[in-house]
Amino acid sequence: MRTVTLNNGVNIPMIGLGVFRTPDGETAANCVRWALETGYGHIDTAALYDNETGVGMGMKESGLKREEIFLTTKVWNDDIRAGKTREAFEASLKRLDVDYVDLYLIHWPADGFEQAWKEMERLYEEGMIRAIGVSNFNPHHIERIDAIGNVEPAVNQIESNPYFQNQDVIDYCLQRGIYVEAWSPLGGAGGDIRVDATLTEIGGKYGKSPVQVIVRWNLQRGVIVLPKSAHKERIEANFDVEDFTLTEEEMRKIRNLDQNMRTGADPENFPF
Q1: What angle do CA 251, 256, 257 make, to 5 degrees?
Q2: Phi, psi at residue 46, to the nearest 5°?
Q3: Is 4 exposed, middle or buried (0-12, 13-18, 19+ CB in 10 A)?
Q4: Pick from 107, 260, 86, 82: which is nearest to 169 by CA?
Q5: What secondary structure does DSSP assign to 224-249, as a single string?
Q6: Of 183, 179, 186, which is closest to residue 237 (Cα–Cα)?
Q7: pLDDT tens for each residue of 106-131
Q8: Mean pLDDT (whole number) for 4-16
Q9: What is d(CA 167, CA 171) in angstroms, rounded to the nearest whole number?
Q10: Model pTM greater than 0.90?
Q11: Is 163 a catalytic residue?
């Protein structure tokens, strides 16, 4: 399992299972168990996803010890705006049926995120969270954290895929020692990245799918990647990327696919 060390010394696996839109209960539990049995070691959920209960079930069903699983969840915008970060965190712990979280993120830079960060710092200092970070933050949002906080964000989870690489934000974060996680690394529902001719050609050279090429591309550019699937064979395939290395020319070809085409909401204007 490939890991990197966050700026506070905590190790995080570079491939994680994302569970956005994965139904709660048995479906989520199965996906988490399959991923952990495959070797992922990293699960990414959120209060918004409404599947923390199933995620916790899958963790237990895997038979792994709690300390063998890197678990991320996130505080949602409504709780940020209401100043209820601690209450939201405690509710997540209860649903997940765990007594700590490895990484806790501010889901979006909603009004009040500065206060939320201060509360997260307190939870971190109390040992309830091993690392704290942000999601969907642009550089100026991170600079607001600098102005009011005492702890540097360990992670910024952002939209990034070959058609929307978001490289400026990635470069900014990496230069500061903040690791980046890519959500929607396959371009979201309805996208055509999975059949992209360039990715198909590159994958054909190694006997890999375009999806596996995308996962490998993220690893080689130093980005933690969170592919999601509800199918056992795809979960396994998304992890099977350690037996090939993309050349510099192949990396350049993928960089050239960038269309600056965002599929998710803009952190500067999100209607939720």
Answers
A1: 100
A2: -165, 155
A3: middle
A4: 260
A5: EE--B-S-HHHHHHHH--TT----HH
A6: 186
A7: 999 999 999 999 999 999 999 999 99
A8: 98
A9: 6
A10: yes
A11: no
Q: Please compute, for residue 97, the number of CA atoms within 13 A of its CA located in the half-sphere on the CB side.
A: 11
User: CA nearest 116: which of 83, 147, 159?
Assistant: 83
pLDDT digits (tens, 9 = 90+) for 62-102: 999 999 999 999 999 999 999 999 999 999 999 999 999 99
53 close to 24: Cβ distance less than 8 angstroms: yes
- At residue 67, φ and ψ (nearest 5 deg) are -70, -10
Catalytic residue among 40, 49, 104, 179: 49
- On whether the CB atoms of residues 70 and 43 are closer than 8 A, the answer is yes
* pLDDT (tens digit per residue) in 92-108: 999 999 999 999 999 99
Res. 232: pLDDT tops 90: yes
Q: Is residue 83 within 8 Å of 112, Cβ to Cβ?
A: yes
> Residues 128, 129, 131, CA angle at the centre, nearest 5°?
160
Q: What is the pLDDT of residue 1?
A: 80
Alpha-carbon span 144 to 140, nearest angstrom: 6
